[in-house]
Amino acid sequence: MKKILFLIAIIIFSVPAFASDISVNVNGNPVSFEQPPVNSDGRILVPLRAIFEALGATVEWNPATQTVTAERNDINISLTIGSEVLIRNNELITLDIPAQIVGDRTFVPTRAIAESFGAEVGWEQDTQTVTIITPQSSREILTAMLNVPVATVNGRNLNADIVSIMVQGAMQTLYADYYSMPADEWERAVLEEAVRQSAILAIAAEHAEQLNITLTQDEIDEYTANINEMIQVYGEAEFYEMLFSYGFVNIEHLITTDMQYGLADKVLEAIITDADLFAPFASYAEEESEEEIFAAKHIMITLDDFENEEDAFVHAKEIHARAIAGEDFDALIAEFGQDPGMETYPQGYTFIAEVMTPEFEEATRNLEIGEISEPILTEYGIHIIMRTEPDLKDIIRPWWDSPLTPEQRKINAVIAAFEEQAENAEIIFLPELYLISVN
Predict the structure, then answer these.
(1) pLDDT the model gives residue 9
(2) How far, in Å, are 64, 189, 221 from residue 8 at the CA level?
(3) Going by CATH, does the domain composed of 293-396 fall within 3.10.50.40?
(4) Fold of 16-133
């Protein structure tokens, strides 16, 4: 009997005692637990899911291995029931007390978990309270300062919301300097470049005030409706993942940014549709270079039918002599030409720069209309080229290119003027700018 009582005593005193008077605060907010914390030899253990979620971490529990994994920002931790080792981003950390099952809940050591996520942990003896202060993530910092001015452009505030979106573009602009500058200097340069790239929106807003242009409530509602529609199309989880990948921290950030671009679009539209408003920008439109358009037909001779390149050139020169002697060029194409593309373009090719091979384009550029080139060599064979009048209805372009309409040329002219004004603007970088994360 004494032996049985002795074993019962061991079991009772080895189980951590429930301590309902212990509380836990994270960033000043009390954490609610379905099962109260316990004190085990001065070590406070708490239910795992509640504490992880209070710390802003996502948590997963694997009942098969009795392992919990959690992630917050760029920190990933995992620990197994009964193990005295916690794994933090592949680093092994020894625990004073392992995670364990208490009642029907998994309990984890509060201090070890919180400190693994970079939090500061304190203990208030009088109130029996664990205090945890978590480090703010770059997203949390930015969320808190979206409407905070980080620079001024000609005295106009430029807030963090729009500058933060320009950071990725600024990083690309300064990519070549990444390895030649100290990290802190490069990050500072990126943030200042983001302000410069944002300055054009401040210039547009200045013109909006001068022209008394504002967004209507219907237009603002339309932005919100469009975003809600996108959420429905993509699904909420995928949409938010996409949102964060572009640097937006929440829906409000996206909407306010869209509104700033929307206002700039209204300013552009007002200027290009009013002759008097556009007059000051006309000189910039004249600077918009007209694209070069070439046209040519050719007799192409492949090298496959000849023993060597020299024999092919001898043949090409014989055809060239007949062409400059006045024989019908189209008849010579039909007799000797080996370019299958001429079947699609029997009148010849009309093309813009960088569509044809460099040798073909250069030879065409050096000809007058109706003039015939000497035989030239490209990767496709030997060509005898006649420059022709362009057929503007059938211009060959690269797949990424498109012709500029008169309206687009006017838009480009206004943007060029705004960019020049932004470059010459008085820009002041405020200390708050350097709180924005570069990552």
Answers:
(1) 34
(2) 30, 68, 69
(3) yes
(4) Copper Amine Oxidase; Chain A, domain 1 (3.30.457)
